Amino acid sequence: MFRSISQLCFLKSYPKLNIYSLLSIGKVSDKKTADTSNDVIFKYINEAGIIQLNKPEMLNVITFEINRRISSKVKEWEKDGKTKLVIIKNTGSKAFSVGGNIKILVQLVKTQNENILFQGLREMYELNYFIGTYKLPYIAFINGLTMGGGCGLSIHGPFRVATEKTIVAMPETAIGLFPDVGASHFLSRLPNNLGVFLGLTGHRLHGIDTVHAGLATHFIPTNRLEEVEQKLVDISNANYDSVKEILDKYCETV
């Protein structure tokens, strides 16, 4: 059983990739005793809330529990009166997030737990909307594979920072599903019918191309992300303009 939508499409892009490596992703999490407390890490530095997706061995697949934890924290930060910006990033550089955990969804369908499934999906869409209407500057460092639910956690926000390792795609049509997580909203707003093409084909955009397409707002090399993050958390009383000023300063164009 594949763990995420994106894994179903990998063999088209990487025909030499061992299929068994895809099937083994997330094997540890199948155990009932698995510790999931560090799957997503929350930090607070100065006036900045930081979300770190921390399951690199599973390409940072998003479960309903992870979604709930992120949703709860960003709502808390928006209301606390002291947080001025939020950064979401990933451990390592292989994957920001390849999206939802398909194995869990299939299990819920097979066991006829539709209420749990529908509630989880509803909460996921609510978080996508919340990010899109967030009152604080929300910066996503989409360093690595960013597919499906990973796009939902990033592209709805005002600042999306791509790197040379970024690969963005909405590959759901490969398994007969529509582009999910609010993708019909952001894909339909891309120029020259590009969104229709990406939604129908699952085509992958790499690096700087994500900026040219309008999916990312800035391109910053991986080796400068740490420096940029430090500059952002050092901003006193940050707002949209001060965040944009920092990102524009470090942004590279091709």
Automatic annotation (TrEMBL):
One Gene Ontology molecular-function label: 3-hydroxyisobutyryl-CoA hydrolase activity
InterPro entries: ClpP/crotonase-like_dom_sf (IPR029045), ECH_dom (IPR045004), HIBYL-CoA-H (IPR032259)
Top-level taxonomy: Eukaryota, Metazoa, Spiralia, Gnathifera, Rotifera
Family: Belongs to the enoyl-CoA hydratase/isomerase family.
Entry keyword annotation includes Hydrolase: yes
Keywords: Hydrolase
Keyword NADP belongs to the record: no
Role description: Hydrolyzes 3-hydroxyisobutyryl-CoA (HIBYL-CoA), a saline catabolite. Has high activity toward isobutyryl-CoA. Could be an isobutyryl-CoA dehydrogenase that functions in valine catabolism. Also hydrolyzes 3-hydroxypropanoyl-CoA.
Swiss-Prot/TrEMBL GO biological process terms: L-valine catabolic process
Domain Enoyl-CoA hydratase/isomerase: 49-252
Protein name: 3-hydroxyisobutyryl-CoA hydrolase, mitochondrial
Enzyme Commission numbers on file: 3.1.2.4
Native species: Rotaria sordida
Cleavable signal peptide: none
Coiled coil segments of this chain: none
SUPFAM superfamilies: ClpP/crotonase (SSF52096)
The reaction(s) this protein catalyses: 3-hydroxy-2-methylpropanoyl-CoA + H2O = 3-hydroxy-2-methylpropanoate + CoA + H(+)
Superkingdom in the source lineage: Eukaryota
